[in-house]
Design brief:
This protein has a 6-stranded mixed beta sheet with strand order 3-4-2-1-14-13. The model has no long low-confidence stretch (mean pLDDT 97). By secondary structure, it is α+β, with helices and mostly antiparallel strands. Helix 1 links the parallel strand 1 and strand 2. The chain is built from 6 helices and 14 strands. The chain binds one DNA strand of 18 nucleotides through loops.
DNA sequence: ATGGCGCGCGCAGCGCGA
């Protein structure tokens, strides 16, 4: 089973990239973030024509998440239970014995801002939910744009980014708290090339110079993490015309 | 040098992303 996550920064603009990518990377599940469209303009027909089921939670202009899958999904949930949030950032569904949680974590804008406070509260609600809701016997994968670079090795210039949003102590502690709950960062369970990133600024030729951050992640609980055989970042779509600023992350699992 | 680019909205230029 292959599960991928990709912040596509407008599904309307990036739909051709998504369909092309699925053609050459026929993953079982693709989690999308930043759809930037309402549910009534979701391109369901095009995605179904490509052989995928789709569930989604969109809104106008901002945010929006979707799960695409080869097999039909069950028990689709939106949001973090008990956490009031107008912003469409979470969608979850089950496939076989696997629970997939797709996140678009708030960006936070800048340390100390209102949006940063919202990010930390949001992450606290996420931690409580992931810690309380799921049983360890389940196979759980949590994917998405976490908007957190967990460690300095995930940052092209740790000095420039030190204590900045995406890299600040409280954000990294929130990420580590998920690890403490038993969720493993699958990318770091395998040998990786140095300077591996999943996002590059559109400005200043950041991609060409590989000035990036690793902020898109695939986490799995212990039960499911041991079934993971690989976790990689596919930088190819970032080289296309009018690319998303994020690259897809893909994990492969052995199913019993 | 706090911009740079790309998106949505909407028709100019701003808010936002990361």
């Amino acid at each position: 089973m292959k599960i991928a996550t990709w912040n596509i920064n407008s599904l309307r603009v990036r739909l051709p990239h998504v369909l092309d990518w699925l053609k050459s990377n026929p993953v079982d599940v693709l989690a999308l973030q930043e759809l930037k469209l309402t549910d009534d303009s979701f391109p369901r027909a095009e995605i179904e024509a490509a052989g995928y089921h789709a569930v989604f939670s969109g809104q106008k202009t901002y945010n929006g998440v979707a799960l695409l899958s080869r097999e039909p999904m069950r028990d689709v949930d939106m949001g973090i239970p008990g956490f009031k949030d107008e912003q469409r950032r979470v969608i979850s569904a089950s496939l076989g014995n696997v629970r997939v949680v797709n996140l678009y974590v708030p960006n936070g804008q800048s340390v100390g801002s209102d949006k940063y406070q919202y990010k930390l509260i949001w992450l606290e609600a996420l931690r409580n939910w992931l810690g309380e809701t799921f049983r360890h016997s389940e196979q759980i994968v949590v994917v998405g744009d976490f908007n957190i670079a967990p460690a300095d090795e995930d940052v092209h210039d740790p000095l420039v980014w030190k204590d900045q949003v995406l890299c600040s102590g409280p954000e990294r502690e929130a990420f580590r708290a998920l690890t403490t709950l038993g969720y493993r960062d699958l990318f770091r369970r395998f040998e990786q090339a140095p300077q591996s990133y999943s996002w590059w600024d559109y400005r200043a030729a950041a991609f060409r110079r590989n000035l990036g951050l690793r902020i898109d992640h695939i986490l799995a609980n212990a039960t499911f993490a041991q079934a993971c055989g690989s976790c990689t970042i596919d930088v190819a779509p970032r080289k296309l015309e009018r690319p998303s600023d994020h690259a897809p992350v893909i994990a492969e699992f052995r199913l019993d």
